[in-house]
Amino acid sequence: MSTVVLLVVLAGIVLWVIGAYNGLVSLKNQVVNGWKQIDVQLKRRHDLIPNLVNTVKGAMEFERSTLDAVISARNRAVGATGVRQTAEAEGQLSQALGRLFALTEAYPELKATGNVAQLQEELTSTENKIGFARQLYNDVATQYNTKQMQFPTNLIAGLAHASPAELWEIEDAGERAVPAVDLSLNKPAS
Amino acid sequence: MSDDVDLFAQQATNRRKSVWLVVGFILFFAWVGFGGDLAYALLSYDPATGTYHHAFPYIGIFCLAAASWICWDSWRNGSRRVLWSTGAWELIEPATPEQKQLMNVVEEMAIASGLPKPKVWVVKDDDPNAFATGHDAESASIAVTEGLLKGLSRDELQGVVAHEMAHIKNLDIRLMTLLAGMVGAIALLSDGLGRMGRGRGIRLDGSLGGRSSSGRSGSSRGGNPLGLIILALWIFTLIAAPVVSRLLAMAVSRKREYLADATGAQFTRNPMALAAALEKLEAASGATGSITRGAAHLCIVDPAPGMLASKEGFLADFLTTHPPIRQRIIRLKGMGYQQAKREAHAAAG
Question: ipTM value of the model?
């Protein structure tokens, strides 16, 4: 009788270990996949920027320094490795681009050519995609990190070669916070 | 985390309701078929020979087959049928800047919601409106009208697309698309069988009249009362079915609009943009001519707003497909203000 109980308990433990192990591996893959999604968009952004600079160069001779800042920020971003460095370089690139877009407002003839407006739309969209992909990546990475630290999953974290994933931190002041979502279907209080 | 739970609860509810809808639909058709058979059989029973004129339930078998086929077809082709009924065309190669923007916004929202990118369709209509259809995230389509593309800013368009992605993620589209297929089928059935039934009714009356006059000498002649009751019930169901199915479509779609607004705002993190878009949609109060009643419950705003469109309450709950836009805007703005307040807090802290 006691051997049966022992076997059942053992089987339960083995099943749990398999489940927890697979759960961690699946989360790890989701983190990797989330990062790939960001990477795709970053590459696209890096490809678009030289196009934009070449298009506006002629008309914006007097804004040489802004254009140079965009190019150098872009080159730094291309060379960046690791989450932290990439996040930093991309943040600077966003700021440099923001300044360039602000300046193009002063050149209405540029916007009228269509090409610039098109490039600007592409870059805006890419930037949005980076933002949303980052949200997704951070969500999954947080889930993964929490799982590895929680008892009892932490016991098999080493077995699954799990290590904490780095989050993409943002210091951008213009970044939007998560809205409070009221799903109670009532009128919001206050 | 709590909103995740809500999302899964909503998906589970929609899965369950979709199953019940299909079961109810098939049961209804079974009743229409076999009930009709039974009434016909009882009324055509000839006590003199002890035989039924109508012994084989071919109406029932036909109806059951038809119902199964309609369910299967609504599942497989429901979205295509809905899109076809609105005259939408699929946007594959964007030609104008507006179309390119729409494509980009859909891609952005697919990333934000973590879903595969749905197919994008454009409806040739100047009234701004949008809807999503399909039976799951893989088969989903989002359609917007040309009026929406022209009238909305980028952020507002993003809000509307996020709302539609929320419907896809909640699996609202499954229930709604099935419902669209079935409402259409029931309307057809009621018309068709009603006509057939009327024809048969006359014939039955004739045979009944003939029999009762000839059987005046007999004691138990004069039609089978059970048969007549079933016949009456049967005719009543046929008359009531289109109305009931339409009411069902309306009642089922109201609450989920609020939820889709909230989930959509979570995708964009910008509830104010959707509020602004809804304000524009409300201002353009004309009817969206190309979206027929059968697909009305799929749209972001009621394509043909009626008298009750701005009312809350029991009657309005039943008779309109959408909650009042004003209410939705107020809730979204509430979310926006709280977000701004927290941002101010974070900046100060």
Answer: 0.70
